[in-house]
Design brief:
5 helices; 2 domains; 3 strands; single chain; 16% strand; elongated; three-stranded mixed beta sheet; alpha+beta
Length: 131
């Protein structure tokens, strides 16, 4: 075993875990649907039916839905921000000249050249060119 292998095997796990989004893509999509679609729809339904049928604790149920939606929305926002920061496979510089966008310096540091052909999609962060 080489010194390089020892360094890689003894690397702290904290570094790798900090670069992951808070939620997996599947959980992110479920939570986003639940927060943006289900909670407001259920809240409106319960409020409307509570007014018509005098359902119990209408104000408390609607308030609880609002608090849950706010909390879950914050989780979604944190996960989305982390993905936007660290979820890109690479970057490209962009500059505008007249009506034309000029792209330069494509970098894909997280993808090996032999893996690129097998990928279905690549996420690129666009950086404004400083020139």
């Amino acid at each position: 075993m080489t010194d390089q292998d020892n360094l890689e095997n003894n690397a702290p796990e904290e570094e790798s875990s900090s670069s992951r989004p808070v939620l997996s893509p599947a959980w992110y999509n479920r939570l986003k649907w639940f927060t943006l679609i289900f909670l407001p729809a259920f809240s409106a339904l319960y409020f409307g039916l509570g007014s018509i049928w005098a359902l119990p604790a209408t104000e408390q149920v609607v308030g609880t839905c609002a608090v849950l939606a706010t909390f879950l929305g914050a989780l979604i926002g944190i996960s989305n921000r982390n993905f936007q920061k660290e979820g890109a496979d690479g970057s490209i510089n962009a500059r505008i000249e007249g009506n034309t966008v000029l792209l330069s310096d494509l970098r894909l540091p997280s993808i090996a050249p032999e893996e690129l052909a097998a990928k279905k999609s690549v996420t690129i962060q666009v950086n404004p060119d400083s020139q």
